[in-house]
Amino acid sequence: MPQSPTLWQSGLTTRQVDVQHQQFGDNLIPHRPPPGDLYFFLVQFKNPLVIVLIIASTITFFLKEFTDSAVIGLAIIVNTILGFIQERKAYKIRNHIRTWKKDYTIQTMMMILMGIARFPKIFL
Fold first, then answer.
1. Interatomic CA distance for residues 7 and 12, integer angstroms
2. CB contact at 8 A, 73 and 57
3. Which of 10, 72, 84, 106 has most Cβ atoms within 10 angstroms of its Cβ?
4. Residue 76 CB: number of other CB atoms within 10 A?
5. What's the alpha-carbon Rg for the chain, to the nearest Å?
6. Model pTM?
7. How many CB atoms are located within 10 Å of the residue 44 CB?
8. What is the pLDDT of residue 74?
9. Quick one: pLDDT at residue 120?
10. How far apart (Å, rounded) are the C-alpha atoms in residues 37 and 84?
């Protein structure tokens, strides 16, 4: 495989790097603030099952089947609450995993995934 002879030679000089660093700052990806609880709650309504249930509940309400409409509404509420709890918990765990440096070894991570070890209670 031929190598480009100028690949390493055509880079920036130290002076150019210093000038660009002063001009543009550190080469970092901007940190976004974490989404709030309202975001996790509203995301639940993007679920196709919830959309179908809302439509079914509306139709049964206009057909004056109030019991059926109430039962479907209860299913929507339960689904939304459970989905909200799971999404928020998964987000916290994902952020915790991202911050792992040398705290956990591969074996510890595998034990957590297999259910032998547990995350600290603060994340669950």
1. 11
2. yes
3. 72
4. 20
5. 26
6. 0.57
7. 18
8. 96
9. 58
10. 8
Q: pLDDT of 48-91, one tens digit each? A: 999 999 999 999 999 999 999 999 999 999 999 999 999 988 88
Q: Domain ranges in the chain? A: 36-98
Q: The tokens of 112 are what? A: 């957590």
DSSP string, 31-56: PPPPP-HHHHHHHGGGSHHHHHHHHH
Which pLDDT belongs to residue 14?
82
Rounded Cα–Cα distance for residues 105 and 120 (Å): 15
Q: Look up residue 59 and give its amino acid.
A: I
Residue 115's pLDDT is what?
Answer: 72
In whole angstroms, what is the distance from residue 88 CA to residue 17 CA?
A: 41
Angle subtended at Cα 35 by Cα 82 and Cα 79, rounded to the nearest 5 degrees: 15
DSSP string, 85-120: HHHHHHHHHHHHHHT-SSSS-HHHHHHHHHTSS---
CA distance 113 to 94: 13
